[in-house]
Design goal:
- 65% of the residues lie in helices and 0% in strands.
- By secondary structure, it is mainly α.
- The protein has three domains: 46 residues, no CATH class; 43 residues; 42 residues, Orthogonal Bundle (Arc Repressor Mutant, subunit A).
- It is elongated and about 90 Å long.
Length: 168
Amino acid sequence: MARSDLTNAEAAEPLGFRGLVVEVLTHYSKRARHYLEQYEAIQTALNNQPPDTTPTHSAVAPPVPRQRYRLADRLGGDTLDKLVARYEAGEPTTALAAEYGIAKSSLLRLLESRGVAMRQQRLTPKQKQRILRLRKQGMAIRIIAAKVGCSYGTAQAFLKMQSDLTGL
């Protein structure tokens, strides 16, 4: 049935979902009647289905406790005290962070919030001499840092400070 075949009263009413399906199918499909029969069979089956009276999973399940996002809440006071004591005893932050499954930056922030004095990892005189010797040999800073056992940033900062002092 084309839209123009409808009476004025029918044309004034919105088509609804079925009417829209009919109109689209008749314009774009040669098998419109087949699809409409399938649609009506599905609609009939859905309408004849008894209502579902079983309780939903959310109605039966107990409420799930919310995830704690604050690091201090997740770890707990006793664990934090042990962590601080181990840091103050000299354990490296990378090892502590890996053991507790947290980021190193989170661990440092946590220690700072508890008023712990941060240790500065300084280069030993032997490391400084080795960095200068390797750099004079033309080695890249990243390789120097790996050989000496420090970070790239530490080696770079030391070399920059040396060049500022020597005027190179």
